[in-house]
Fold each of these.
Amino acid sequence: MRHALVEAGRALEQGETPVGAVAVFGDRIVARDHNRVEQLTDATAHAEILAMGAAASAIEDWRLNQITLYVTMEPCTMCTGAILLARVGRVVYGARDERAGACGTRLDLIQGNPHGHVPRLDDGCLEQECRALLQEFYRGLRSKGD
């Protein structure tokens, strides 16, 4: 998760929502990224989506059942859907997302998955550190009036 926090910090420096993701296969990081929505002018350029795409390329398989995905914030509906479709084996996230979290906080797409695959889910990993980056970002937006 510390590597995902580094990615989230990069997003914050670039004016992006500070979410970072790291994909681990066995004991090695095979992909890492952060939100790039503004940079790529692409609403789907969330950290999880980018990291999963890179992980699939790295292991040469779209089925990510042997991947652990570390992400600093609970995945949204789009990212949770992609996690389910890619059959990610395990998801570890830091801060819960009261507004749009789709892994059980706001919605629970994991347990209601019609495709049958249910990843192992662990939440609250380094939650305070993950939340602090998000709070810093949103404080900055409020001070700008955005």
Note: DSSP finds five helices and five strands in the chain.
Amino acid sequence: MSVDVGALDDFVVGEPRQLHVADKVLVGVRIDDEVFVLDDRCSHEEFPLSEGTVDLYSCEIECARHGAMFRLRDGEPMSLPATKPVGYYEVAIRDGRVEVFVP
């Protein structure tokens, strides 16, 4: 199922945005004309990734609590203390709208 989460123009490049889709809390991040969506919880201590910062060069998001980095393209942990990935969701942009595919 795909869910419309807003216009591409509503996503500010490099600024995490919390999204509520069905019963899930997600974080969306725009880099250039792409949007990446992950679960909004660090796998280390469940802290919201939407409160973190984004590294545009490496395409990663940093947890604000302990500095764990996650790759936006697939949710893989890139630094300690996180060792487990966070959930990743496929995204499509159609007619300037962002759609997230959720199971």
Note: The chain has a mean pLDDT of 97.
Amino acid sequence: MRTVVFVCTGNICRSPMAEAFLNRILAREGLAADCAVRSAGVWAANGRPASPFAIQVMARRGIDISGHRAHSLTQADVEEADLILVMASEHAEVIETLLPQYKPKIHLLSEMVGRHHDIPDPGGGPLYEYLQCADELEDLIEGSYLRILELAKGTYT
């Protein structure tokens, strides 16, 4: 089984939503046994619940993330991951500065669909920013889940 880790800043908005979207897609496609999906934050406060707005926008999509608790990214997480998908370039920079040997497995999520841009952090913003973020994450992950699996398995060409 391969491991994919989504990374954002606090692990209470973007990365738990991304984790939930990929898990839903993998379950729908019968691929859940192929991949463990996790999330973490580069500056997360361990144990903090997901943002209330993140919980709300995911509930609108039939996904419950109310049980999510923030997890601060550790060296072990990076070592054990087959693929690390970051929400913003700054997250990659933090990881690559501390653990440069793992740079090949770190990618910006938007790169999975041939783009190169950060996913804006809705944290502290109004509900519509969370809705926009969730829409973008869902579109990106829906459009790239096969590539994500291939990269995690090391088979993407």
Note: The two ends are 20 Å apart (CA to CA).
